[in-house]
Design a protein that fits this description.
DNA polymerase, domain 1, 2 domains, ten-stranded mixed sheet, two-stranded antiparallel sheet, 12 helices, 12 strands, about 35% helix
Length: about 375
């Protein structure tokens, strides 16, 4: 297994891309929040502050179970200490700047301003049988994929565990308060497919996954099988995730089956080739018994040729036929002025046909939110 501190050398002639695995230095830290901490750490913090440790469980119950954000509703906390307790473990993390709706209000995209002015986005998508939250893990992104609105802005900073979790809790609040058409409901799925490269902010993302799946009131009590963590292919971190023992779904943003094109579309490929990246994804499926999702943004005349569908099928079929993988084709949501645009529907259909002919389960992602700057980073870029 490669070590993150000594990544492989870029292929001859390829542009070396600095790997951004750790939090950028020199920035103020977000406020410490109970979602950053384990149950024991929350109790210890209150004790250190001269407060009663058992109050940590009450605060956790208000945040994760009752979804309360108004201290006046926390009536089981003593009035004389309430403000101090809330300040200690429930500081404000982000402010909503804009919420845009589509699909008759069942798709809601929110632009958030973090404590230091950084902008991030989250999306709530309600379907008949589930509610999915798409969350950001970084303000900006350092992976520099040229077709991605977020990647063009560069990386500002990593988000904290609590900032990531707060996006989901905010969505859960809006559902509980019947602000989304369809009646009260719960968040059933979380996908780390918003702004940022999740595995480049590994520690905070794993912390967030644990808070989402910790039993209530320590966390939101979600099933790990309802959580999807995406990556452009940070191989050492994929292998680290394999050893975590958390059965989340891994989504690999491949976008090309050959190194020549993927080096251009996903620059990290100059460090970790298609073969290395898919091999790490296969290992994840083999160890966890969880099917991997291959994300493939369909771009007209770029990566949507029929022969590339055949090649993708061959690459994925090189690891056995027990159904370890599923391909999710994504009609590209183009950004204004970009040369990158969505594939012709007939080319998309042929791509699906070729993959299915090779025995690869394939679906085309439902495209929601086009009319509300749906691509990750578009709303933040517009606001900036």
């Amino acid at each position: 297994m490669s070590d993150a501190s000594t990544p492989p050398t870029a292929p001859s002639g390829a542009t070396a891309l600095p790997l951004v695995f750790d939090e950028p230095r020199g920035r103020r830290k977000p406020p410490r929040h109970l979602a950053d901490l384990t149950e024991a750490e929350r109790k210890d913090l209150l004790t250190e502050l001269g407060l009663q440790g058992f109050r940590a469980k009450q605060l956790s119950n208000h945040y994760f179970a009752r979804l309360v954000d108004d201290p006046d509703e926390m009536t089981d906390l003593p009035a004389a200490q309430r403000a101090e307790l809330v300040a200690a473990l429930l500081p404000p993390l982000m402010t909503p700047l804009r919420t845009m709706e589509a699909d008759k209000g069942t798709t809601r995209k929110t632009l958030w301003r973090l404590f230091d002015g950084a902008l991030v986005e989250s999306v709530l998508m309600r379907y008949p049988d589930r509610v999915t939250m798409c969350v950001s893990s970084q303000a900006g992104c350092g992976m520099a994929c040229p077709f991605c609105a977020t990647g063009q802005g560069g990386l500002q900073r990593n988000m904290s565990t609590a900032e990531i979790v707060e996006q989901v809790v905010a969505g859960a609040r809006s559902l509980a308060r019947d602000e989304v058409p369809g009646g009260p409901a719960r968040v059933s799925n979380v996908v780390f497919m918003g702004m940022g490269e999740p595995l480049a902010n590994y520690k905070a993302v794993i912390g967030a996954v644990r808070r989402l799946t910790d039993p209530s009131p320590a966390g939101l009590g979600m099933s790990a099988r309802g959580v999807t963590v995406s990556t452009v292919g940070l191989v050492p971190r994929i292998r680290q995730l394999t050893d975590e023992g958390i059965p989340v779904t891994l989504a690999l943003s491949l976008h090309a089956p050959d190194d020549e094109l993927r080096n251009e579309l996903v620059p990290i490929n100059t460090r970790f080739s298609v073969a290395e990246t898919v091999d790490a994804a296969w290992d994840y499926a083999r160890v966890t018994k969880r099917r991997v999702s291959i994300e493939y943004a369909m771009m007209r005349g770029i990566n949507d040729q029929a022969w590339r569908a055949d090649l993708l099928g061959d690459v994925l079929n090189g690891y056995g036929d027990w159904g370890w993988v599923h391909v999710n084709l994504i009609p590209l949501n183009p950004t204004p002025g970009s040369k990158w645009t969505a594939s012709d529907p007939k080319d998309e259909r042929e791509f699906v046909r070729r993959l299915e002919a090779k025995g690869i389960p394939t679906t085309v992602r439902d495209t929601r939110g086009r009319e509300i700057d749906g691509a990750c980073g578009q709303l933040a870029a517009t606001e900036s």
